[in-house]
Amino acid sequence: MGHRAIFTHNDLDGLVSALLARVALPDADVYFCEYSGLPGTVRARLQRYDVMWFTDLSMRDEPLFEEIRAAGIECYWFDHHASSLRQDWMVECRIDLSGERCAADVVKQYLLEQGLEIPVPVQTLADYAHDQDLWIRHLPAAQEFNDILGSLSVQELYDELTADPLRVYDWSPRMREAAEQTQAARRRSITLARATAVSGPLGDDQRILAVCCWGSVNEVAEELGDPHTLMVLLDLRQLERGQAKYSFRTKSDAINSNAIAEALDGGGHPKASGAPLGLDVLHALTGELVSRIQGVAASVGQGAPRCE
Hints:
The chain is an alpha/beta fold and 308 residues long. The protein folds into 2 domains: 4-171, inorganic pyrophosphatase (n-terminal core) (Alpha-Beta Complex); 189-281, Diaminopimelate Epimerase, Chain A, domain 1, CATH 3.10.310.30. 43% of the residues lie in helices and 19% in strands. It is built from 11 helices and 11 strands. The strands form 2 sheets. It has a 6-stranded mixed β-sheet, sandwiched between helices. A hairpin with a 3-residue loop joins strand 10 (267-268) and strand 11. The chain is globular, with a radius of gyration of 22 Å. It starts with a strand and ends in a 9-residue tail after the last helix.
């Protein structure tokens, strides 16, 4: 049997997709990736694996596809992002564009078609991923579990669950502590979002509401959004991780957040998407800082000294 790897997104849907994929590939190595970091992660491992599964990852990098294909790698891809570029040469390429299934749903369906038995804890997690990733939010237990990822890395939670799948129901102390930290941080994040909110018209009785927050992007959008609003969220906590991006969330059927994200070199779903934060936005911020401090300096007699 050749060497096998699973590449997946670093959120709850990606985590559950990986756990499902391991039902078919119990010996596979698992890599959690941001969309932007995926090409480099894969290229560094092209000579290491004979089989690669990709789950919950939007991919449009045609040169990367060609490199994978040229390396003779047996490739499987399960996704649900409208921004993904379908590849018919793969052994299996399932990209569900219905808006009704998350990546974990797509992987689960494939496993069932193969006659594989899915452990009950992983089935529970699949229900959680469906509820959270599609922004349904009807399962309180799913929200509580997702809170763990607000303060515990996806790799750490994956390690907990692979060591003891029953941790889905009986949390370890650090899982519980992580969830509690996330819930406290969410309250602070919502307060920050309310204080920084700026709105503007979007047309057709819709509006944009832009806010800064500190994590808990979905929950902030749930709290401040409504069926006529496109939420634009700048998660300042991401800056600690070296990331700068917009997050878009909407409850409106008239707004396709994915179309906006794609125009900004991002992607996602109609209701939830994201895009890199351009340097022009950061330059506008620093330019405003310069103007403001110039005014303050002049008011307190701290202008530039004259040269005699």
